[in-house]
Design brief:
This protein is 12% helix and 13% strand. The chain is of the alpha+beta class. The two termini are 14 Å apart. It has five helices and eleven strands; from the N terminus they run H-E-E-H-E-E-H-E-H-E-E-E-E-H-E-E. The chain has a four-stranded antiparallel sheet. A hairpin with a 5-residue loop joins strand 3 and strand 4.
Length: 310
């Protein structure tokens, strides 16, 4: 959730904790894939202000394969898909001393084998729920700069589920590869849902309510909002560009420079290898992202353990 001013990485800002609330999402959207698609397999882990843009022409969907990272292209980039697994379920994660607003969200079921990560243009049904919430007129990027990533993941309930997030097209391939790596590690994720009308509006400026999403332990990326705690400055966070991703907010809290911990302090001192926790920069889970060229907020002087930035 780290508040990053504009595109400057590593900026720190305290944010005010708001009341939590979790909205439902349409399971069919999380698994939505344009008709044209190509299958792929897992690879080694290693702007300007716009007004409401016209609806772009549908672009071909690509499924993750273990190949070299695709070069920039107007079309969605190709990303890697984890190898098929015969495992269909894991044990549920026991309740900890503190829990998010929903322990076991009703996530859409997994689609296909392995992670089956797919990058596509943002579907109309998803975009319509974003407009007026996570996207508003004047945001630094428009729909044509964004991509929709759907991927299977291992939930805290032990089930294979399907999630979706909206990211900038410049990091879409890297994001798909990172989540594919997490799937292969059986890393637990609570839920992955786009920031949209289901979360309500941010009461301090543009954007969907990120504080409600954090309390619900939602993993997300694009949200056209100002730097948290500095809304009066009207400086956009890197989430407003879609280049920042927050994963498992509850297990990986943000420690603000004023000492406040968001969304909960329980895991602030519990950084060992626990389900859903990014324990250290050398952990396989963190390297799933840093190996794709992204930076981890857990290394900052005021750590933001949930935050990865491309």
């Amino acid at each position: 959730m780290r508040a990053v001013a504009g595109r400057a990485l590593g900026g720190l800002a305290a944010v005010a904790l708001l009341a939590s609330g979790c909205g439902s999402d349409d399971p069919s959207d999380a698994a939505a894939v344009p008709s044209t698609s190509t299958t792929v397999s897992p690879a080694p882990s290693p702007t300007t202000p716009t007004t409401a843009p016209p609806t772009p022409k549908p672009e071909p969907t690509t499924t993750v394969k273990p190949t070299k990272t695709a070069t920039k292209s107007p079309s969605p980039t190709t990303t890697p898909s984890a190898a098929p697994s015969t495992t269909t379920a894991l044990a549920a994660v026991p309740a900890a001393g503190a829990q998010p607003t929903v322990r076991f969200p009703k996530n859409p079921p997994a689609v296909g084998n392995g992670a089956n990560a797919v990058v596509s243009s943002v579907p109309d049904s998803v975009w319509n729920r974003m407009v007026g919430y996570s996207w508003t007129s004047g945001c630094p990027v428009g729909r044509s700069s964004l991509r929709y990533v759907t991927v299977n993941f291992w939930g805290f309930d032990g089930k294979r589920s399907r999630g979706a997030l909206v990211v900038n097209k410049s990091v879409a391939s890297a994001a798909a590869r990172a989540f594919t790596s997490l799937y292969g590690q059986q890393f637990r994720i609570r839920q992955i849902r786009p920031m949209d009308s289901t979360w309500g509006k941010n009461p301090k400026g543009p954007g969907a309510n990120d504080y409600a999403a954090m309390d619900a332990d939602n993993t997300s990326a694009f949200n056209c909002r100002y730097v948290g705690g500095q809304e009066s400055s009207k400086q956009y966070s890197n989430h407003a560009y879609g280049t920042a991703i927050d994963v498992n907010d509850f297990e990986n809290p943000y420690l603000a420079d004023d000492g406040t911990i968001y969304p909960d302090s329980y895991y602030a001192s519990r950084r060992s290898a626990r389900p859903g926790v990014f324990s250290s920069s050398s952990s396989a889970a963190v390297r799933a992202f840093t190996g794709q060229g992204m930076s981890w907020g857990g290394r900052w002087s005021h750590p933001d353990y949930q935050h990865f930035d491309g």
